[in-house]
Amino acid sequence: VNKNGTTLSESATPPPGGLFDGVLARGEVRGILADAGWLQAMLDAEAALCRAQVDAGLFPAAYADAIAAECRAERFDPAVIGADAVSSGNPVIPLVRALTANVRRAHGERPAGWVHHGATSQDISDTAAMLLSRRALLVIAAELTACAERCAALARQHQHTVLAGRTLLQQALPTTFGLKAAGWGHALDEVAGEVRRVAAGLPAQLGGAAGTLASLGDHGLSVLAAYAARLGLPEPLLPWHSHRLPVLRTAGVCGLAGAVAGKVAGDVVLLAQTEVGEVHDGAPARGGSSTLPHKQNPVAAVGVLAATGQIPGLLASLHAAAGHEHERAAGSWQAEWAPLQALLVATGSAASWLRDCLDTLEVDVDRMRTNLELTHGLLLAERIATHLTPSLGRLAAHDLVEAAARTAIATGRDLFDVVVADRQIGALLDAATLRRLLDPAGYLGSAPRLVERALQHHEENR
Amino acid sequence: VNKNGTTLSESATPPPGGLFDGVLARGEVRGILADAGWLQAMLDAEAALCRAQVDAGLFPAAYADAIAAECRAERFDPAVIGADAVSSGNPVIPLVRALTANVRRAHGERPAGWVHHGATSQDISDTAAMLLSRRALLVIAAELTACAERCAALARQHQHTVLAGRTLLQQALPTTFGLKAAGWGHALDEVAGEVRRVAAGLPAQLGGAAGTLASLGDHGLSVLAAYAARLGLPEPLLPWHSHRLPVLRTAGVCGLAGAVAGKVAGDVVLLAQTEVGEVHDGAPARGGSSTLPHKQNPVAAVGVLAATGQIPGLLASLHAAAGHEHERAAGSWQAEWAPLQALLVATGSAASWLRDCLDTLEVDVDRMRTNLELTHGLLLAERIATHLTPSLGRLAAHDLVEAAARTAIATGRDLFDVVVADRQIGALLDAATLRRLLDPAGYLGSAPRLVERALQHHEENR
Amino acid sequence: VNKNGTTLSESATPPPGGLFDGVLARGEVRGILADAGWLQAMLDAEAALCRAQVDAGLFPAAYADAIAAECRAERFDPAVIGADAVSSGNPVIPLVRALTANVRRAHGERPAGWVHHGATSQDISDTAAMLLSRRALLVIAAELTACAERCAALARQHQHTVLAGRTLLQQALPTTFGLKAAGWGHALDEVAGEVRRVAAGLPAQLGGAAGTLASLGDHGLSVLAAYAARLGLPEPLLPWHSHRLPVLRTAGVCGLAGAVAGKVAGDVVLLAQTEVGEVHDGAPARGGSSTLPHKQNPVAAVGVLAATGQIPGLLASLHAAAGHEHERAAGSWQAEWAPLQALLVATGSAASWLRDCLDTLEVDVDRMRTNLELTHGLLLAERIATHLTPSLGRLAAHDLVEAAARTAIATGRDLFDVVVADRQIGALLDAATLRRLLDPAGYLGSAPRLVERALQHHEENR
Amino acid sequence: VNKNGTTLSESATPPPGGLFDGVLARGEVRGILADAGWLQAMLDAEAALCRAQVDAGLFPAAYADAIAAECRAERFDPAVIGADAVSSGNPVIPLVRALTANVRRAHGERPAGWVHHGATSQDISDTAAMLLSRRALLVIAAELTACAERCAALARQHQHTVLAGRTLLQQALPTTFGLKAAGWGHALDEVAGEVRRVAAGLPAQLGGAAGTLASLGDHGLSVLAAYAARLGLPEPLLPWHSHRLPVLRTAGVCGLAGAVAGKVAGDVVLLAQTEVGEVHDGAPARGGSSTLPHKQNPVAAVGVLAATGQIPGLLASLHAAAGHEHERAAGSWQAEWAPLQALLVATGSAASWLRDCLDTLEVDVDRMRTNLELTHGLLLAERIATHLTPSLGRLAAHDLVEAAARTAIATGRDLFDVVVADRQIGALLDAATLRRLLDPAGYLGSAPRLVERALQHHEENR
User: Fold this and answer.
1) Listed residue (D42, D45, D62) closest to D54, CA to CA
2) DSSP A363-378
3) Is residue C14 packed enough to be buried (19+ CB in 10 Å), middle (13-18) or exposed (0-12)?
4) Which of A126, B35, B240, C342 could form a disulfide linkage to A19, CB 3.0–4.6 angstroms apart?
5) What is the bridge-based pairing of β-strands A170-176 and A162-167?
6) What is the pLDDT of residues A426-442, one digit of tens each?
7) Do the Cβ atoms of B332 and A121 come within 8 Å?
8) A381 backbone φψ class: left, alpha, beta (φ>0; ψ -120 to 50)
9) B188: Cα separation from own chain's centroid
10) Coil, helix or strand for A166?
């Protein structure tokens, strides 16, 4: 039961998903944004509007009670409302008409006469969008935080697990899986925080037909304040019918969430390649192929990418639709509805799949070690160059070791052998030192300390 | 009944629409792309695959009959299939499993053993996508052609209706409403043609797990040819699992259709402004507001823009997802599903709303004439300058008339009065000639002939 | 002179613009992001790196002095560096090579040996990008704030200037130009604040080849801290080579700025239409046409839209490029360079044109009043309905007045006459009351108070 | 020397590139679209316009000779023209003013008076855009065709080179490098053809201020025809100032080209991974790192991706700008300039890098063979299942082999050993047959024949 005396449909069973929803709309967000959720949120806005007018002394509380009693989504058929919307261009108009009829039937003319008073369709629809966006963003933030927790655990566990750092998809230097996981986790934490901040700031909408609250006479501002308070949404300084910052901020954090989720999933897919094999999707009975009996596809990570691949375009759609004309727009407002929902669903799906991906991720420490040896020492080339820098200068050392590395690659020999045999380098470096320099675990730089400080920051900002 | 002996669900009643579908998913495309349509198209592909293998002599026709008999969408629950898709990452795998079980139950092990033989999930899903895209594109093309017909009628009717040509939203020169409508119509015709060409070229997909048709042994190419023929789709030269040109071409013509529809609707919305008033949405009982009793909103044109505003972003999503890795992608393929459907639905909705918009468009010829007089002759300033060009040179004439125009604006006088009083121009131009020059209907250049040739081209290319 | 002892090129004369830069790259941002700016920012990063290593005790200050002395952009040819970048894929590698040669030539081997020590190309390039982005964002924020100031002045001046509020480009209700300007100004203030917050948070980048700072041994974290401090940039918790939140946040606020600027400019273009004429671009000698002597195009507002039209796509490009693989990306990093620059330039151009647009905006109060009368009273239809609501209920009142409005439109009569003659309404409403209700200035609702609170908020948050 | 008697600047030395152009603007397109190219193309349009009016008998040929003689880009300073464009919003107006002055100075008032007669700025700018786009597209098509040739050579050479087919980045089945290269080549051929078709259809633009050719009186259509003929561009049926199909078609084929180039480059980057190593960037002295002496980065493929990553967003920008208002747009036209150029440059750069990438590509056939053995037989699991299908049915066979595969993975044993030991499968399959089934070269399906038909198609369509 919410402040309006109506029951929010938050816990309602979501409608059955469609053919593609299992893959593309994982998690709770689809249910939040289902038609029943929209209807209830619109009705919550109508109920709050009535109560706010009672608060402002416009009519007796009994009228608002009567109206609020009818503000229940299950009493309206979204297919009928949706079809009736054709003649007006938005679903609020037929909803208000149906709601008024219901109130009249059950409670008489008097309360029916005050339904929707003071509001324009967009007030109701925008407020509903904010209620649902907030709910969806909080679900997304919770998923991202759960992902970050899992990354923190991986970072702690693998603080000293050495693997090849890769740049331009080439092995470059040793790093630790702990640092990789800490990088994922820190980005996830950051974005989760931004998602929550945006969710908390999403405002109510109430301006009447042209943003002046004209039909509320002198009561406009007090009704606005009470309306927002009743809904638990921040009160806007001004109506924002044609200034879409709340929508764009919602889109913006979805964009950030998608970017981070996609980065992590991309790394997982690459690490899970047959030829790399450093992580696996560990979920039992998942990842099979319709035709290949041996496949162990990284399904969860692919699920993330299936969602995040849609996000930049949807973000662009919402930005392209931001130029709302004058007091309320001719098309741009309606052009927001589908992309905003698709964006929230995709972001929620990405976050949910990522959580699954990280929860079931199996790390193959042995394979990481084996892969470090693939280049027969080349991975430590920089270290040798760095060791020679005090004697030769950075660039000369770099060029000398580069030449040795190219020889090693061309001849298939170990870097150790080539370097030992090199007159110039050999003069500066004995075999024992070289052997020590070629140990990957000895060339991790600040990786362990970076992990430490990332974990500490994570703990402190929970 | 199609070639596979199965009944295509083309004429099935589309499922009830959702809360936003009346506005955002007008027309037939939503129904075509509903889950039942997808299921049937996937099953049509499975049926065609079996029959193609019979054609190639792989197994008896009775097996294919048995399988095809089960390939009926209404025997599968999309919600169940969709939910089962979570463990494999696409809905074809659980569909094949369910189909195999049904065939086994009804017809025994033998035919059941050949279900989906030779194919990979993506073969079925891509083929279904092409079947449905073709169907949707043909609907879109028909709507666009109907719009073009209506524009041709408007162009014919208004070949000599003068209105202000507007550039940078300023009145610039007289033009005719016929030319405006001919411009709309020609663009619509062009795009309708391109939509049809792309639809006709959408190929079947069959490559097996890695595009080699390996499990079909020596029969790969003959099965591929028979499969495509059975489906009535062009046979691809090579499997295109990770080369997405057919998807991008579909997206591309949707982009063109959206661009043209949006252009026309944008013009209508601008012409319908209260202060312009040259066209109206003439549909009875439409365009009301929830709170403003007098509003006559251009609902249909707004419906077009609600759809077209989504298209550029969706187009970008499909292009961003085009880099499919190796033989089949890890995420990019799944990332296509939602944008492709959203794009087709939005384009279909735009085309359908546009047809409605044009069908009900009322043209206010009087208002066009009145608006021509708003600038007290400035609209013909270029004509005066052109008239003076032989005497003064183009630039000098331009600058002189520009000065007169600025005087007219600053002082609120008619351009006639200012020009007549101007010593330099007055010497070159008598009042009667000036009066003649200031008649908008006399300064239409090639407008009527351009309309004629556009109409002739339209007729010849029907 | 900055902390590194090098002179920043901030005040350098920007290079001459190209053919399209006058229109598309107005303001200071183009100059900030010119090649000279990039070179100097990269060299500032190299200088800061050396000094940071001195701070950490790695080598004598004299070496850093020697290196920093060579870190001057004018000593390098961007065309040569750019061409040499072909073989390595980024311009930092040839720049480091050229810088090292210069240091060696002027100061000998010793300091030359420490150039770029500890860093990877991306450390330098990302740091330079952050330095330049911060500078560009601060310019943009200043322009937006100047725009907001101008809007505040307009809002104050026109707090009681009545004009038609327009929804779906139809006149809807009276509002005030003050409220319109306050809405613009508040959105501009909000975004300017967000731009500044993002600018202040853009971090330095230093991680070495794989983000472990390996070649700095035990000194990694102290060098990182000193490096960031030297540059005046926040120190990142972790290297962010493949976590692109700083780039995406920069893009995000550009997106918001573009959205708001585009909204305001869109309103101006619409208000400046010949048929509306409520504002004009007041800049003398601007807005002419190459062929139309009388044109007064709203050039500045069009300049805004020319820029903002590019922004959503560029934002999408940066988000699509966010999936950087592993420790450093194969392509996505390089794919950021052009869109990031284009985005900052476009946003800067939009902000600069908008400032010009608002500075020269002329408001035609008389035309606003005239336009209010275009609908012969229909604009107050809601007010009559609201007045009748206590007697009839909201919906019945709405429907009754809607019918009257339709009659007025169909017959071309004033709403006053129709309503007075209406039996049902006439019974509830005398002519004097009706006359009063039809005064637009009496139906402004909370508009003046909304302006007041917006101005107060603006003052308090300067 | 072109038809106008002016020298086209096609062969002029392109201006020096900037800091990022070596990486981001490779190839000829940058030079084509440089300011000098734009100026010359605009001047070519002005010259053609004069000659066309001579053709139509409007004025003596000597005037056109005089004007055309001044139509040389090197006589104008793009920086000055660009700066002057601020007051009018486009560079054509100051260019026409400067050209007129030059003609007057050199040839007197008479010819000067006819400069730009009949045209509007957008006629000149759009025509120039089409001239340059055509030139750029033909360069791009040539590069793509060269890439396709190289792919055909690779396909021929490697028709029987076996490597692992990979789906979802997991080894799936054997395929041939020939088929992979044939797939690349066929897509490149297809797109090259579409690029050429679009290039050939790009029309001239001439409509005068409002698209009516009004200032040309009765000569409008004949001037239009002569103008297009003089420029060698198709004549449009109608002026297309606000119908942007030619721009969108240009964008569309750039999108397709980018998609294909990005796909190929993506495959190369993945194949070049240290852990895969099946191809290498074979360019000597390329791919070094600023800090890692051993790196052999796939620079050319990364160069492709740096370009293609920008394309979807730019495509969206052009589509979002397609809604040009009325006869000529307020902002959308100007919003095209930067994205169109950026798109052509990026596409040209992608095509040029790809050619380089393919030209220097080294294929490591041994590593391909080695990688096939990584899964100890799992790659042939489907084949075993297919072999068992006649006995067991497809699904039962699939499930049985899947179980064996999972055992092999879990225990680290060869699939051969597990299968031989499996009671159910062992009964149906002797060791010799199994050994034969596990030979990758024996399970290539139609791969060689697909290569053959692709090569034949390539030959026939050269």
Assistant:
1) D62
2) E-HHHHHHHHTTTTTG
3) middle
4) B35
5) antiparallel
6) 888 999 999 999 999 99
7) no
8) alpha
9) 9
10) strand
Q: At residue A291, does pLDDT exceed 90?
A: no
Dig out the tokens for D38 from the structure. Answer: 């734009």
Q: Which residues does residue B230 pair with via DSSP β-bridges, in sequence order?
A: none
Burial of A412 (0-12, 13-18, 19+ CB in 10 A): exposed
In sequence order, what are the beta bridge partners of D328? B167
Cross-chain Cβ contact A293/D375 below 8 Å = no
Handedness of CA D116, D118, D122, D127 (dihedral sign): negative
C-facing residues of B in 314-333 (CB < 8 A) are 316, 320
Q: At what angle do helices B35-55 and B220-231 cross, to 10 degrees?
A: 130
pLDDT (0 to 100) of residue C88: 87
Q: Whole-angstrom Cα distance, residue B91 to residue B96?
A: 9
The structure tokens listed for D226 are 């002569």
What type of residue sits at position B50? C
Mean pLDDT of all residues belonging to chain A: 93
Please, is D343 exposed, middle or buried when counting C-beta atoms within 10 Å of its C-beta (0-12, 13-18, 19+)? buried
Angstrom CA distances, A370 to A161, A376, C297, D47, D120, stand at 12, 11, 69, 70, 69
Q: Which of C150, C328, C355, C383 is catalytic?
A: C328
For tokens 């008998």, the residue is D57
CA B361 to the chain's CA centroid: 20
Model-level pTM? 0.96
Nearest CA in chain A to C115: A394
The residue with tokens 């290079």 is: C15
What is the distance between the alpha carbons of residues D457 and D344, in angstroms, rounded to a whole number?
A: 28
The residue whose two tokens read 């490559």 is B207
Give the whole-angstrom CA distance, residue B275 versus residue C368.
11
CB within 8 Å: D212 and B168? no
Tokens of D106: 């050199």
Chain A, 366-395: which have a CB under 8 Å from a chain C CB? 382-383, 386, 389-390, 392-395
A233: phi then psi, degrees, rounded to nearest 5: -110, 150
Whether pLDDT at C267 is above 60: yes
Q: Are B259 and D248 in contact (CB under 8 A)?
A: yes
Structure tokens at C61: 């200050």
Q: Tokens for B376?
A: 């007290």
> CA B116 to CA C23: how far, in whole Å?
59
Each residue of A102-136: pLDDT tens digit? 999 999 999 999 999 999 999 999 999 999 999 99
Tell me the per-residue pLDDT of A185-243, one tens digit each, with 9 for 90 and over. 999 999 999 999 999 999 999 999 999 999 999 999 999 999 999 999 999 999 999 99
- The position carrying tokens 């810088």 is C99
Nearest to C268 by CA among C175, C362, C163: C362
CA distance D200 to B400: 42
**Pick among C77, C84, C244, C290 to test the D interface (most D CBs inside 10 A):** C290
